[in-house]
Amino acid sequence: KAVGDEVAEGDALAEIETDKITLEMEAQESGFLTNVFVDEGAVVPIGEVVATIGAQDEVGKGEKPATKATEAVAEEISGEPLEEADEAAAVVAGETPAAEAEAEAVERNEKFRASPLVKRLAEEAGLDLGLVSGSGPDGRIVKKDIQPYLDGSKALPTAKGEAVAAEVVAAAPARAAAPTYAVTGTKVDMPKIKRVTGDRMSESKGFIPHYYVSASIDMSAALEFRKTINAQLESAGIKVSVNDLIIKAAALSLVEHPNVNRSFVGGELYQQDSIDVNIAIAMDGGLIAPFIPAADQKSLGTISKMAKDLGKRAREGGLSMEEYQGGTFTISNLGMFDVDEFIAVINPPQVAILAVGSVAEVPVVRDGKIKVGHQMTITLSADHRALDGAEVASFLQSVRKYLENPMLLAVG
């Protein structure tokens, strides 16, 4: 919308590109777009007033309303009280329901679930949030949880072994500073999603003790099985891919090996009840990994339809927050790019990620004779804090069992 345009409640005013997705900013009331205070392409914090809505005779008049504090918005998201908002009908960045969900999801990915205000107050008071129980949604730490420690009515909590933990931290090698280089060439704009992915993967490699186990799978039976079921599903417009078979095989293997379907958060392991399989999808400017919930309970036809729909909407910017903020196990498949094998970086707080190469024709020996076979290499990157080599090897054996005996995928 442009300044002076008439708008109705619910109209899309603009698009906001967040770290991972493009969202529509909707008008919260009807009227005229009287002012726009930021340029297209500008980066603004959550809580920044970007436009105002009012009467037609107010178009182009008036000053920018006072900006809502970012911390106040964070408090609103956490369910804590807010100060009185400005009376002006301001359109505030980040205050669509989807954006609120994203801000909350980002907070939930941090070590402790708490608003920025709570974290700042705790830091100023020397309070370790790891020793505080949260009463908010999903165990979120809210202001009332830490208030007794702030006003002195309760002593600051301490943990046994605190000195030992400090010694371990002190003994840890310092991370080397990033080297500096002479600047050459032309600066290229880096999409935010690529920056965020890079930051998360750097953190993952820096703090998660990765190790890698590979296995080769004979895909001959799987390819024949795929051809058969696609012939049967053709009238329904469904076409099962090799990746769909892998998703189902991995999901069923996670049922047999629930230790791989865990998360490592704050030094503790958590068992996930649902098997939600993320699928890495390449799109313009970066990578995103939406997930198929309860993949072990879905048929191959359903997995195929959901995977294609997620891929289409990921590339078109149509994913909802709930579809990519979560998941318990990730699959990254580069087989379509004729890649033999590779290793992937774990998507925290998950404890493993499966990298899948292409299916290649290779000579194999069957019944003492050399024949043409179809082989695929898969590699599991695992968190050594959560999984040992035998556990990973057993999981890969299970994936092989399902793919080399694909009828089990239809009945599982």
Identify low-pLDDT runs: 69-88, 97-102, 104-110, 160-173
Number of helices: 11
Mean pLDDT across residues: 82
The biggest beta sheet reads:
6 strands, mixed
Shape: globular
Task: Give the percentage of residues in beta strands.
Answer: 15-25%
The largest sheet has its strands arranged as: 7-16-15-14-10-13
Share of helical residues: 25-40%
Number of strands: 16
Structure class: alpha+beta
Distance between the termini: 51 Å
Compute the CA-based radius of gyration.
Answer: 26 Å
Order of helices and strands: EEEEEHEHHHHHEHHEEEEEEHEEEHH
Provide the descriptors you would attach to this structure in a database record.
412 residues; alpha+beta; 32% helix; 22% strand; globular
Give an account of the 3D structure.
This protein is of the alpha+beta class. Helices cover 32% and strands 22% of the residues. The chain is built from eleven helices and 16 strands. It has helices at residues 70-78, 97-108, 116-125, 143-150, 162-171, 192-207, 220-233, 242-256, 300-316, 389-404, 407-411; strands spanning 6-7, 12-17, 22-26, 31-36, 49-54, 90-92, 210-218, 262-265, 268-271, 277-279, 281-283, 286-288, 291-292, 329-333, 352-366, 369-383. The protein is globular, with a radius of gyration of 26 Å. Residues 69-88, 97-102, 104-110 and 160-173 have low confidence and may be disordered.
